[in-house]
TrEMBL record, chain A:
This is RNA polymerase II transcription factor B subunit 2. It holds the Pfam family Tfb2_C. It is found in: Nucleus. Residues 473-539 form the Transcription factor Tfb2 C-terminal domain. GO terms for molecular function: ATPase activator activity; double-stranded DNA binding; RNA polymerase II general transcription initiation factor activity. Its main location: nucleus. Gene3D superfamilies: 3.30.70.2610. It comes from Komagataella phaffii (strain GS115 / ATCC 20864) (Yeast). Keywords: DNA damage, DNA repair, Nucleus, Transcription, Transcription regulation. InterPro entries: Tfb2_C, TFIIH_p52/Tfb2. Belongs to the TFB2 family. Component of the general transcription and DNA repair factor IIH (TFIIH) core complex which is involved in general and transcription-coupled nucleotide excision repair (NER) of damaged DNA. Component of the general transcription and DNA repair factor IIH (TFIIH) core complex, which is involved in general and transcription-coupled nucleotide excision repair (NER) of damaged DNA and, when complexed to TFIIK, in RNA transcription by RNA polymerase II. In NER, TFIIH acts by opening DNA around the lesion to allow the excision of the damaged oligonucleotide and its replacement by a new DNA fragment. In transcription, TFIIH has an essential role in transcription initiation. GO terms for biological process: nucleotide-excision repair; transcription initiation at RNA polymerase II promoter. GO terms for cellular component: nucleotide-excision repair factor 3 complex; transcription factor TFIIH core complex; transcription factor TFIIH holo complex.
TrEMBL record, chain B:
GO terms for biological process: nucleotide-excision repair, preincision complex assembly; transcription initiation at RNA polymerase II promoter. InterPro entries: TFB5-like_sf, TFIIH_TTDA/Tfb5. Component of the 7-subunit TFIIH core complex composed of XPB/SSL2, XPD/RAD3, SSL1, TFB1, TFB2, TFB4 and TFB5, which is active in NER. The core complex associates with the 3-subunit CTD-kinase module TFIIK composed of CCL1, KIN28 and TFB3 to form the 10-subunit holoenzyme (holo-TFIIH) active in transcription. This is General transcription and DNA repair factor IIH subunit TFB5. Belongs to the TFB5 family. Pfam families: Tfb5. In NER, TFIIH acts by opening DNA around the lesion to allow the excision of the damaged oligonucleotide and its replacement by a new DNA fragment. In transcription, TFIIH has an essential role in transcription initiation. When the pre-initiation complex (PIC) has been established, TFIIH is required for promoter opening and promoter escape. It is found in: Nucleus. Keywords: DNA damage, DNA repair, Nucleus, Transcription, Transcription regulation. Its main location: nucleus. It comes from the Eukaryota. One of its GO terms (cellular component) is transcription factor TFIIH core complex.
From TrEMBL, chain C:
PANTHER family: GENERAL TRANSCRIPTION FACTOR IIH SUBUNIT 3 (PTHR12831:SF0), TRANSCRIPTION INITIATION FACTOR IIH TFIIH , POLYPEPTIDE 3-RELATED (PTHR12831). Component of the general transcription and DNA repair factor IIH (TFIIH) core complex, which is involved in general and transcription-coupled nucleotide excision repair (NER) of damaged DNA and, when complexed to TFIIK, in RNA transcription by RNA polymerase II. In NER, TFIIH acts by opening DNA around the lesion to allow the excision of the damaged oligonucleotide and its replacement by a new DNA fragment. In transcription, TFIIH has an essential role in transcription initiation. One of its GO terms (cellular component) is nucleotide-excision repair factor 3 complex. This is General transcription and DNA repair factor IIH subunit TFB4. Component of the 7-subunit TFIIH core complex composed of XPB/SSL2, XPD/RAD3, SSL1, TFB1, TFB2, TFB4 and TFB5, which is active in NER. The core complex associates with the 3-subunit CTD-kinase module TFIIK composed of CCL1, KIN28 and TFB3 to form the 10-subunit holoenzyme (holo-TFIIH) active in transcription. The lineage of its organism: Eukaryota, Fungi, Dikarya, Ascomycota, Saccharomycotina. It is found in: Nucleus. It comes from the Eukaryota. Belongs to the TFB4 family.
Length: 547, 71, 328
């Protein structure tokens, strides 16, 4: 589950990192955005930011490096507590340990977000009196100021929260908002999977799905995995098919899905000349609003008002009377939270429909080592998703059972789903009992390991296995089975008169990069289809030269 | 004069190569040339047929628990 | 078969970078009023509280699932007390989860609650402390914190499925009290079992108990001389997240002396007496024949034998042999 939130973070981070510095500085003027961006950083980066935050002077790079434990490469390393990690003894030159790589990655990300700048300063060495060049890191002053204010509470939050106390309009209950948002969201997902939808999503959503590459307008094709069931509407958008990326999207958890769509929206909005700073600020601010409260529209900028209407389509906002108030739904308020316990759409829908007490288990798939699968769910969406790679056999009132078979997995693989996605999905939605058992097993293994041996061997690292390893390995093997054969269209060259002719053509093909296979003894080689034109030209030129 | 033959390069492991040759043994119009242990040149149009045949042969060797239930 | 060896069986390593479990920070503040008066010119409780509040806000800002708990250890009026969350208010924890997305609100909420409770605590202190005994101790507060942590990390996740890690920060200004040795040691061993690391922020005198606590639980011990930089200490050295601990070098400045020392005289000893009940070590047999730690009475006969000074046999003068046989 941490993997999918990691994926979400990388996509959001990629977008943020690609923004120019001026945009970053404007973003950091709002303390809420500062906090939201802070939460998206990896843990070590957060630590570095905190250590620089309250420090009046800038810190040298070496000092920051000293915090990280030098890596244990295959041989034991010096165990002195504060040795600089650059002096770690390694097995082979140029090797960079895991810790150091992690640290480098964190620093790189901080620099790309313009949170940290490195500056070369000349410091006088107190012992020798010499001037040495030292690399020193400084925190972005705008960020520093606003974040400090946020932490020390000295800045009165200038967001919407302070102004809301008027309730002349009846308040909307949380359950209603939940139901509303889920209905909208599941609509979109059902549309993607291809099952019946009571009401098609709006044109804005459809074009967004198309632009993000999750669905595609295709020709009539009998080999599509999910049959279309729309009643003859001519508009192309309404008859889109899901793509490989779309399948990947379906298997992610809801937070990642929302963010992916929001990022796509951001990219589209830039083309529409909407100020990206405003849009980002609004999104982060949404993440900080309180569920169930209404907020007046007057406090938003123009760009943000336009966004409101768009966001209604995704189920993020409930906007009953235009131009007065809006309500954020649970999907909006958990935008910036990392809680992976946020229930999937199907789980919440279940609870809402049953109206019963909160379901105790989050994630409801039980998987046995004999590949039999049992899933406690009644949501048609989850069942449709499971159907993509599981051969479902029986359906009960509160559960479906089936088997993961070679055929079902191959079917999924043919549709573009990868084995990793399937495994991640199973892990995310595993029953809590399975997770508990796996943790207990892991603890036992770790205790046994630490009692038996002192040194840690890299090869035998114990990790948490929620899904039985037999199933995981078998799914990966089935994926490997799929591409035992690789084919490339092109041309085979043979029957060369002498070695020199062969060499000339073959080397030329190599240089141009169209060579696929070559055998110098037999004087044959194979080039791609695109390469034949270039080779022909070259061969003709050679002939003319000789002639 | 060197010749250029149009075809498809097939890269696989030796066991699959042997299977493809076996499929070819019946009709003789699939494999154009054998290159080495892991590469063959095959007629472009016959590739879907080869893949389907290969899948069928390999499926014969794998256990499908559903078969016995449906039987 | 290289393909299988490579791709299929590449183990995905459990990366620190992907560890996003929320954590619970429990802060135990030593509010021994007698000790605080000793630090009068250096730092006052208000200053400390301000720094602690900033630390709490920083902890909450790390992760939306992070939580905090604050306890005070002792006062003349009552023993250890929870400042936050208020044990009497059952709705708090529910409200916390609602507020977690709204960061400013959450900060305000937590901060105000703590200040309120602290004010109540201080208001209830008697003005004339002459005959009052100090109630409560650090060990007591630590056990309360540990049981809260246990509830949140072990018992609740079974029903809701949220895993939580925990760490504890002890802010202490007093010296060690040998009376508290056994309960204190029990606390740190249970913290070790629960994998809760204990960080210590020490002002005033050094304390070997707390040094041991941080050593055993993989925590950080900092003896702070310059209290004006308190916020910095709190937000850097004492702020290391449980998920980061495996890869960080801990900036502990403790040098623990692991040699045995007598409980009564505090001298390092090599040979001494041991109480057979609680195993504490003495260099001299304590008066009253009672063990100071466990109050168990030693057997009189055995003590008498041990106390007996060795009998010195008078030296028999041997005449020196010089050219002849001497007579005694």
């Amino acid at each position: 589950m941490s993997d999918s939130s990691n994926l979400l973070k990388t996509t959001v981070n990629d977008y943020l990192e690609n923004l120019p510095e001026s945009v970053h500085n404007k973003l950091y003027q709002s303390s809420i955005t500062c906090l939201a961006i802070f939460r998206l950083l990896p843990s070590l980066a957060k630590f570095y930011v905190m250590s620089l935050l309250f420090n009046e002077h800038s810190v040298s790079y070496i000092d920051l490096t000293r915090w990280i434990r030098p890596d244990n490469m295959t041989h034991l390393v010096s165990s002195s507590t504060k040795s600089s990690s650059s002096s770690a003894v390694t097995n082979f030159p140029g090797a960079i340990g895991k810790n150091k790589m992690y640290q480098n990655e964190c620093l790189k990300r901080l620099k790309q977000l313009n949170l940290i700048k490195d500056v070369r300063k000349q410091w006088t060495n107190p012992n020798t009196g010499q001037l040495t060049n030292v690399v020193v890191l400084q925190l972005n002053p705008m960020f520093r100021k606003n974040f400090r204010n946020a932490l020390t509470g000295s800045q009165m939050s200038n967001d919407l929260n302070n102004d809301i106390e008027m309730t002349d309009v009846e308040e909307v209950s949380e359950e209603f908002l939940d139901r509303y948002s889920l209905m909208k969201w599941e609509n979109i997902l059902h549309f993607m999977v291809g099952s019946e939808v009571p009401e098609l999503p709006s044109i804005g959503v459809l074009s967004l799905l198309r632009h993000s590459g999750l669905m595609d307008i295709g020709e009539e094709n009998e080999f599509i995995a999910t049959p279309k069931r729309f009643k003859g509407d001519n508009m192309d958008l309404k008859s889109m098919k899901i793509t490989q990326d779309g399948f990947q999207f379906l298997l992610q958890d809801i937070n990642a899905q929302i963010w992916q769509l929001l990022l796509q929206y951001l990219r589209m909005s830039e083309k529409l000349m909407m100020n990206p700073v405003d849009v980002l600020n609004f999104i982060f601010m949404l993440g900080s609003l309180e569920l169930g409260k209404q907020y007046p529209v007057t406090l938003l900028s123009d760009t943000q008002v336009i966004m409101l209407e768009d966001l209604v389509d995704y189920g993020l906002i409930y906007y009953p009377e235009k131009n007065r108030y809006f309500y954020p739904t649970r999907m909006a308020t958990t935008l910036t939270s990392e809680k992976t316990t946020f229930k999937t759409a199907s789980m919440s829908m279940n609870q809402v429909l049953e109206g019963g007490p909160e379901v105790k288990d989050h994630g409801s798939i039980v998987l046995e080592t004999n590949f039999k699968l049992y899933c406690y769910t009644t949501s048609p969406l989850q069942i449709a998703i499971l159907n993509l790679f599981v051969h479902l056999r029986t359906r009960f009132a509160n559960m479906v059972t089936g088997m993961i078979t070679r055929e079902s997995v191959r079917e999924a693989l043919r549709n573009g789903i990868t084995a990793d996605q399937i495994i991640k999905y199973l892990e995310t939605h595993a029953h809590s009992q399975m997770k508990k058992l796996a943790e207990e097993k892991l603890l036992k293994k770790l205790e046994f390991d630490s009692n038996a041996t002192e040194t840690q061997q890299i090869g035998s690292q114990v990790k948490l296995e929620v899904i039985p390893p037999t199933v995981v390995d078998q799914i990966k093997l089935w994926q490997l089975e799929m591409d035992r054969l690789q084919t490339f269209a092109g041309f085979l060259f043979k029957d060369f008169a002498n070695a020199q002719e062969f060499e000339q053509l073959a080397n030329y093909a190599d240089e141009v990069g169209v060579m696929l296979w070559r055998d110098d003894d037999k004087r044959k080689f194979f080039v791609t289809e695109e390469g034949i034109g270039q080779l022909n030209d070259y061969a003709n030129r050679l002939k003319r030269h000789r002639a | 004069m060197p010749r250029a033959i149009k075809g498809a390069l097939v890269k696989c492991d030796p066991s699959i190569r042997a299977l493809i040759l076996k499929i070819d043994a019946e009709s003789h119009d699939i494999v154009i040339e054998e290159l080495d242990d892991t590469h063959l040149v095959v007629d472009q149009n016959r590739i879907p047929f080869v893949k389907a045949e290969l899948a069928r042969i390999l499926a014969q060797n794998s256990y499908n628990p559903l078969d016995e239930d449906e039987a | 078969m290289d393909a299988i060896a490579d791709r299929a069986f590449q183990e995905k390593q459990h990366n620190v970078s992907q560890d996003e479990t929320p954590s619970l920070l429990a802060v135990v503040i030593d509010t021994n009023p007698l000790e605080w008066t000793k630090l009068k010119g250096v730092i006052c409780l208000k200053e400390l509280c301000k720094s602690v509040l900033v630390l709490l806000n920083a902890h909450l800002s790390l992760n939306s699932g992070n939580r905090v708990a604050v306890l005070t250890s002792s006062s003349l009026n009552s023993g250890p007390k929870f400042l936050y969350p208020d044990p009497n208010d059952k709705t708090y924890e529910k409200r916390e989860s609602l507020l977690s997305s709204d960061i400013h609100r959450q900060f305000k909420f937590v901060d105000q609650k703590i200040i309120q409770e602290l004010q109540i605590l201080l208001d209830n202190e008697p003005l004339n402390p002459e005959n009052q005994e100090l109630k409560g101790s650090i060990a007591g507060a630590m056990s309360m914190a540990l049981s809260y942590i246990n509830r949140l990390t072990n018992i609740e996740p079974e029903s809701t499925g949220n895993t939580l890690r925990a760490k504890m920060l002890v802010i202490s200004i007093s010296d060690d009290s040998t009376q508290q040795y056994v309960p204190f040691m029990n606390c740190i061993f249970s913290a070790q079992k629960m994998k809760v690391s204990i960080d210590v922020c020490k002002m005033g005198p050094d304390s070997s108990f707390l040094q041991q606590a941080s050593d055993v639980t993989n925590g950080v011990y900092m003896l702070i001389k310059n209290v004006h930089g308190l916020i910095q200490y709190l937000t850097t050295a004492l702020f290391i997240d449980p998920s980061l601990r495996p890869i960080m070098v801990l900036p502990t400045n403790s040098d623990l002396d692991f040699r045995a020392s007598c409980f009564v005289t505090n001298k390092v000893i090599d040979i001494g007496y041991v109480c057979s009940v609680c195993l504490c070590i003495f260099s001299i047999i304590p008066r009253n024949n009672v063990c100071p730690t466990c109050q168990s009475k030693f057997d009189d006969a055995v003590v008498k034998k041990l106390r007996q000074k060795p009998i010195v046999i008078p030296l028999q003068k041997k005449k020196k042999l010089e050219d002849g046989v001497q007579r005694t």
